[in-house]
Input
Amino acid sequence: MKFKEFVKKYVLEIVACFVFLAFIGFSFIPLIKAEYDGVTYNLSIMRLMLGVKLTDVSLRPDVMFITIFIIFVISPILVGIRSVFVEKGKENVASKLLVATNWLLIVANILMLISFRYLPVYDEVYGAIETELLVLPAILYVEASLVLIIFTLRVYFSDNKFSIFDLVEMAMLVALAIGLDKLVLWKAPTGGSINLSCVALCIYAYRRGVFKGFIASSVIFGILSCTLDGYGFQTYPFDYFIAFSGFALCGIKVKLFKEKLNFLNIAISFSIGCIAGFATRMIGSTTSSMVYFLSYLSDQTLRGALIYNVAYIGPSAGIVLAVLIALSKPIELIDRIYPAK
Output
């Protein structure tokens, strides 16, 4: 195989290899600036993972930074594993690995951007330590992540195309989701509500798959809902794009039961999507609360943000799941008459 053909065939794997090496190198570059007792310390992810001593205060090995580092390193490795499945002709598994890669990178970057608030220490003088995220190193991580995300999306889009049936069904169910979004069962004081909008999004994801479900929920519904809610587009990345992405996992079709009990398989797929949706909504909305609405919280901490968001996200996910399980049998009948291609 000629060099040019090799590069063309394995361009994604080559990019992933460079990104992997970049993440390893970035882990030694100072990311957090900490000031304590008049002394400034520039701390890299590697030092934070191993633990570090600031004068008379010890920072223990940080689970959050260990998690961030592992995710950054694993993401490009998944791209390499994907190529093995491509060679074996298992395109479905390969596509799911691309989706997993992108979401891991997004989660890692979010954790990194909020991490400087939560440096754990052994000493009660934690409040005396001032921490700041260094902008340039953070940008390096984000840019390396974006490069890999762009290349993975390029490959993914080339393998997943929308038919006219996909688009029409998306338009109908997203419109239904927008309508259900306005039928509020309970509204939280500073945003967020209990409603059934995700029922329509989960049905579309189950019918058309994870990727198309993600486009419908996080992109189309997310942008429309963000615009109509009126909180400002700065809330879109966390409260909409990330928050509603988990429901796309309803597109994972389970086959634990035989054909006669297929409605149980559908119910399990909906359960997976709703659990994932609950998790992503908690991650996205809690991050948004910490960034944009911290002054409104009675307990101005991560704990306060979690309590506020679980008050409406938990019941909403539970009600949506109950409705979807009740609809499993009708959806099975619809699938038989109008199978998704």
About this structure: Residues 121-126 have pLDDT under 50 and may be disordered. The beta strands are 30-36, 39-44, 52-54, 57-59, 130-133, 186-187, 193-194.
